[in-house]
Structures are given as C-alpha cells and as structure tokens.
C-alpha cells in the first residue's frame, strides 16, 4: 500500500514514472474494453493509465451507481448507436483497466459512467495508454465498505 497523507483517509502512491506511451487504433466491430485489456496484457502494462480516448460506438455499455449505500448498487445502461465517444480515462492495475467514459448520443443527450465490455467500435476509436514503472498497482476490497481499493507494492 502507499501511505496515509496529510491527516486524511487518502492514500498516496508515489515513486512511479511513465515508461512508455502506446497509441491504440481500433476499427469497426472491435470491443473497446477487450482491446484495452489485450494491450495491457500483451504490452505487459501491469500498472498504467488510459490517458485519452475518442471514437464512435455502434453499441455502448456503461454502469453507474444508483444509491449511496456500501457497497453501492450498479445500474447498467446499454444504448444502440451511433454514439460519439468524447473521452475515456482510467487506471490499469494488475493488467486490468478501470475506465470511465463520456459519450454523446444521437439527440445530444450525454451518457457517462464506468465503461463496460460490449462497447462496439463503429467507425474508429483511438486511445493513448501509458505504462508505469517503479511500483505495481493492484486492487483489493476495502475491509469496511467492500469497495475496490487501489494499492501498490514494490516490484519483485
């Protein structure tokens, strides 16, 4: 784990740096989430970040929390395209991406939340991914709330 910081419940994970930037291009029919997962495994991105992504989807799937209980109940939303992917950002820990996205639907309505598998690329999608070195990010469950918690360990 990192270390408690400044009298808060926040945990600071430092002593990391960007080792490599990888640009990813996806085409019609690609599953956005599966492509990022594949890149994380094949390029050995144990720890990293999705810095930016844009594109279009034929189908989009997200979830967002629907209450303030612990653990929160997830509400899943699936929409058919065309969907404009406006932005994606996220963290990769243990080779697993955790991504959030903002999308625009046909009528100008916005959709935002945790990006789920099943988002199918329509025309194209592009992403910029960074690999970190120095510490290894991982997730466990918070002992009280049961929510995912980002932690770090020193490499073996």
Give the termini distance in whole angstroms.
15 Å
The best one-word shape is globular
Strand portion: over 45%
CATH superfamily: Hypothetical protein, similar to alpha- acetolactate decarboxylase, domain 2
Following the backbone from N to C, one meets helices and strands in this order, namely EEEHEEEEEEE
Q: Main β-sheet, in a few words?
A: 6 strands, antiparallel
Q: Per CATH, what is the topology?
A: 60s Ribosomal Protein L30, Chain: A
Helices and strands: which structural class?
mainly beta
Radius of gyration: 17 Å
CATH architecture tag:
2-Layer Sandwich
Q: Helix fraction? A: under 10%
CATH class: Alpha Beta
Give a written overview of the molecule.
With 156 residues, the protein is mostly beta strands. It has a single domain, classed as Hypothetical protein, similar to alpha- acetolactate decarboxylase, domain 2 (60s Ribosomal Protein L30, Chain: A). The chain is built from 1 helix and 10 strands, in the order βββαβββββββ. The relative contact order is 0.29.
Characterize this entry briefly:
With 156 residues, this protein is mainly β.
Question: What labels would you give this structure?
Answer:
single chain; 156 residues; mainly beta; 60s Ribosomal Protein L30, Chain: A; six-stranded antiparallel beta sheet; two-stranded antiparallel sheet; 1 helix; 10 strands
């Amino acid at each position: 784990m990192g270390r408690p910081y400044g009298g808060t419940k926040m945990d600071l994970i430092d002593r990391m740096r960007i080792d490599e930037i990888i640009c990813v291009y996806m085409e019609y029919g690609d599953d956005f989430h599966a492509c990022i997962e594949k890149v994380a495994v094949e390029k050995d991105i144990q720890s990293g970040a999705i810095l930016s992504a844009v594109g279009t989807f034929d189908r989009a799937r997200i979830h967002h929390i629907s209450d303030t209980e612990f653990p929160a109940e997830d509400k899943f939303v699936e929409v058919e395209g065309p969907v404009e992917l406006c932005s994606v950002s996220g963290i990769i820990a243990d080779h697993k991406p955790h991504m959030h996205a903002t999308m625009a639907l046909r009528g100008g309505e916005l959709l935002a939340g945790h990006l789920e598998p099943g988002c199918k690329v329509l025309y194209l999608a592009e992403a910029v991914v960074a690999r970190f070195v120095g510490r290894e990010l991982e997730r466990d469950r918070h002992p009280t709330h049961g929510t995912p918690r980002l932690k770090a360990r020193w490499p073996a």
